[in-house]
Write a structure and sequence with these properties.
With 254 residues, the chain is an alpha+beta fold. It contains twelve helices and eleven strands. The strands form five sheets. Strands 1-3-2 form a three-stranded antiparallel β-sheet. A two-stranded antiparallel sheet has the order 4-5. Strands 6-7 form a two-stranded antiparallel sheet. The N and C termini lie far apart (82 Å).
Length: 254
């Protein structure tokens, strides 16, 4: 890129950021959570169609990227460089980025199933820890591979990594978490991790929902093996289990 093209590129990005609604959209994405166009329209205080037009422009300039998850479409910043640039501008402007407040019920937000793998706060923390430790390596936006250390970690859990790589599905990939709006681990590796967690009784499944409850053993094992600090789980998965068990007992009573 020559000097003239560079100058044009800078001016285009600066013009895009300078629009107040786009600034609100970009700043709301600085926390790393993805959001829908509807949510971003509310944040920017514009109509849905106007927000879509703004997002199309920001996507064109590679400031945001689109994640399609089933029927849902989420937007996030393209990468950390965009966040760093915005943060530098906010220091100059002395503004603070808004925080993300999830609205998912507590019993599902901490841990739940997502198809055949784990989702929620617990899964996102484990995913982030695996990336931070270098066990999971990002080969592109939608594919992960294991480092030697990562392979040893999973094989130490009794997971046959080489067998998983031969299955007719993605081995490991980021799956956008709808409560945290950040990735958790999907693919055959994510499924194998959840099955291992259930088999070893690290987590138990709620009988009447997708909620998972972290056991004391699970907290100890996950904290030890993954070297991750886990928050205290809100114990709201029990009522559903208790009610289901009460109904089962009532139906079997003589």
């Amino acid at each position: 890129m020559n000097v003239e093209q560079h100058d044009i590129g800078v001016s285009q990005v600066a013009a895009a950021i300078a629009e107040p609604a786009r600034t609100k959209i970009l700043c709301s994405l600085m926390d790393g959570h993805a959001r829908t166009s509807t949510e971003l329209a509310a944040i920017a205080e514009v109509s849905a169609s106007t927000a879509s037009a703004h997002l199309a422009k920001l996507k064109e300039l590679a400031l945001v990227r689109l994640h399609v998850q089933g029927r849902h479409r989420y937007y996030s910043l393209t990468d950390k460089r965009v966040a760093q640039a915005l943060e530098a501008l906010m220091v100059i402007g002395q503004n603070a980025a808004p925080t993300f407040n999830p609205r998912t019920p507590d019993r599902l937000q901490f841990a739940r199933t997502c198809y055949d793998h784990m989702a929620g706060t617990l899964a996102v923390l484990l995913h982030d820890r695996m990336i931070e430790a270098g066990w999971l390596l990002e080969t592109d936006e939608q594919v992960y591979q294991l480092s030697d250390g990562g392979e040893a970690l999973f094989e130490g859990l009794g997971i046959e990594v080489k067998d998983l790589s031969t299955l007719r599905r993605r081995f490991a990939c980021p799956c956008l978490d709808w409560s945290m709006r950040r990735p958790h681990l999907g693919g055959s590796l994510g499924a194998a991790l959840m099955q291992t967690a259930i088999k070893r009784k690290w987590v138990t499944q709620d009988l009447d929902s997708r909620a998972l409850a972290l056991t004391a053993t699970g907290r100890k094992e996950l904290s030890s093996r993954f070297a991750v600090e886990l928050p205290v789980q809100v114990s709201t998965a029990q009522p559903g289990f208790t009610e289901t068990r009460r109904r089962a007992n009532a139906s079997s009573a003589p």
